[in-house]
Amino acid sequence: MNGNLTIAMPKGRIFEEALELLRKAGYSLPPEFDDSRKLILDVEAENMRFILAKPMDVATYVEHGVADVGIAGKDVLLEEERDVYELLDLQISACYLAVAGLPGTEMNDVAPKVATKYPNVAAAYFREQGEQVEIIKLNGSIELAPLIGLADRIVDIVSTGRTLVENGLVEFERIKDVTSRLIVNPVSYRIKDEVINELVTRLSGVVSLEVK
Amino acid sequence: MSRLFMFEKPLGMRDTLPELYEKKHRVRSLMDETIKQWGYQFIDTPTLEYYETVGTASAILDAELFKLLDKDGHTLVLRPDMTAPIARVAAARLLENDLPLRLAYAGNVYRAQQREGGRPAEFEQIGVEFINDDTVSSDGEVIALLVSSLKKAGLNQFQVSVGHIGFAQELFKQILGTNGRANALRRFLYEKNFVGYREQVNSYSLSSIDKQRLLQLLELRGGEEVIGKALDIVEDGYGKESLIQLKELWEVVTDYGLKDFVKFDFTIVSHMSYYSGILFEAYAGNVGFPIGNGGRYGLIEKFGKKASATGFAVRLDKLLEAMGHQEVSNTVECIFFSQERRKEAFQLAETMKAEGKKAVLQDINGVKNLDAFTKKFANTTFLIGGA
To answer: To which H or E segment does residue A137 belong?
Structure first.
């Protein structure tokens, strides 16, 4: 079990890009991987086990040590503040966190409201701006909030900006650029140092190639 | 506020039922025994301390403290660790004539947490504090005792990663000069954010050699050979001094015959400002959180005495988790009696206890489901009816 590495992968959009990156790094992952509905996938040839989690939960699995390493968006790491090592910027799934709202609108003076999936990030951002706002936590379709008057602003992930445009919203401020990161449990980082060092070396090899 | 069900307990509080109690007791006794064999003296301190004294001196974050008020309006805390109370007692009562002092403890500590399950808010720590000896021998002794007591407790696979707070600190000072820039990097290490660390380093206008030196810090992990690599990137001064200490520490643990359990890791920054020298964390492969940690600290000065100290604390809950499932064999026997043979039963029980056995005396009329009750014992004897 000692050489075995458990990797928490985010389901959805990031999964495919992460998979591609791992393959480029020379890990042979079976083709049926891509459209499996299983939540746990064992790759015996590589001595690896993949668990498929909600992107927001990846850091949780890694912090508790049930996964040794994980691939998580910087947005998740900022929001969740989990005690994990952030070892490598994988430079995939690039997007950014931004403040958006209806064009030409001001924030409500008395009780400005911000709807978001990222209450901690949003609260920290507005506090740093010296603005006192009320945060409303939503779980999806955040763009709806300003349209029907739940909030003055939203804080959300923007990748192409199309969703904003299609819903008649504009971006006001850019908070932070987001890419996916390789994260590692602090105990695994020490106990499984050899396997993890190899993973980091191989991944950073392909990542730096991409950038150049 | 919703109405509480009668079975509920505050978040993070756990009951210790008989089976777990036995396991805890066994592990604790084994560790206690080892610690006593090394000549450490156990002490107890109160559960409640003043926030202004122990609370603020402790290494534990303010947000993690359980606070309450006494009738005079002083803020009290449930002790969040044992090191700060022991520093208080040591400074006030025990430190005489500048002699080395070896103290030990086993007690519950409290950390408020509001996040989720999986983290107890009350847990037991077993540990030692070795006060008033600033030699590397004392750092080595504490690490050796940590390893020995964990082995004695029955843990086979674990590792102690050792770092030195002075190395990174000095490297940053030599290259960056200002405290502000050094602190920024230190915070990234503390937050385990190597991506941020690298970005920060690359954002500074430094020679590429200096950048390389800062980036290499992240790679400084492993056995004895790491010291050599570290020597290449640091200049003379306190940074080198820290490496001399670690080199000596390696020799000390080698002489103890325990070097297989120890690795170096220069990226360990457990706390922003608490530790002052060699520091370490202990890991077992199957538990996601460190099972113990420790290091050299200057805390006692906050209590008015100049004394350097080192120590370790092991989390009993994590240690038990690391040891995995263990059969606790049930050795209790039961003697069922009725009025007629009561005296005989009592005598038999006395004999059994004298032999070191455990015996329950049970009036047969008190048991409604005899079959179910009998199953709870290793053995049963019936002394009932007319003899």
So the answer is: strand A134-137
Assess B265–A contact: CB distance below 8 Å, yes or no: yes
Range of the domain at A162: 95-177
Interface test with B, best of A5, A57, A178, A190 (most B CBs within 10 A): A190
Q: How confident is the model at residue B387 (pLDDT cuts 50, 70, 90)?
A: low
Question: Which superfamily, per CATH, for B10-157+284-328?
Answer: Bira Bifunctional Protein; Domain 2 (3.30.930.10)
Chain B, nearest residue to A86 by Cα: B193
Q: A190: burial class by Cβ within 10 Å (0-12, 13-18, 19+)?
A: buried
Domain B332-383, CATH among 1.10.260.40, 3.90.25.10, 3.50.50.60, 3.40.50.12590: 3.40.50.12590
Domain boundaries, chain B: 10-157+284-328, 159-266, 332-383
* Interface contact A186-B192, CB threshold 8 A: yes
CATH label of the domain that carries residue A146: 3.40.190.10
Asked if B118 has any chain A CB less than 8 Å from its own CB, the reply is yes
Average pLDDT for residues B298-323, to the nearest whole number? 93
Does A52 lie in the same domain as A79? Answer: yes
Phi, psi of A149 (to 5 degrees): 85, 20
- Asked whether residue A9 falls in the same domain as residue A52, the answer is yes
* Amino acid (1-letter code) at residue B309: A
Q: What is the DSSP letter of B168?
A: H
Query: Does A193 contact chain B (CB < 8 Å)?
Result: yes
Contact B193 A86 (CB under 8 A): yes
DSSP B79-135: -S-SHHHHHHHIIIII--TT--EEEEEEEEEE----S-SSS-SEEEEEEEEEES--S
Q: CB–CB of B290 and A188 under 8 A?
A: no
Burial class (CB within 10 angstroms; exposed 0-12, middle 13-18, buried 19+) of B24: middle
ipTM, 2 dp: 0.88
Q: β-strands A48-53, A170-178: how paired?
A: unpaired
User: B310 to chain A, minimum CA–CA distance in Å?
Assistant: 23
Asked if B221 and A193 come within 8 Å (Cβ–Cβ), the reply is: yes
Grade residue B181 by pLDDT with cuts at 50, 70 and 90.
Answer: confident
Asked if residue A211 has pLDDT above 70, the reply is no
Residues of chain B with Cβ-Cβ distance to A3 below 8 Å are none
To the nearest whole Å, the CA of A81 is away from the closest chain B CA by 9
Q: Minimal Cα distance from B116: which residue of A?
A: A60
Tell me how crowded residue B249 is: count the other CB atoms within 10 A of its CB.
22
Domain co-membership, A40 together with A26: yes
- Report the predicted TM-score, pTM, of the whole model to 2 decimal places: 0.90
Q: Scanning every residue of chain A, which has its alpha carbon at the shortest distance from the alpha carbon of B289?
A: A187
Domains: count for chain A: 2
DSSP B3: P
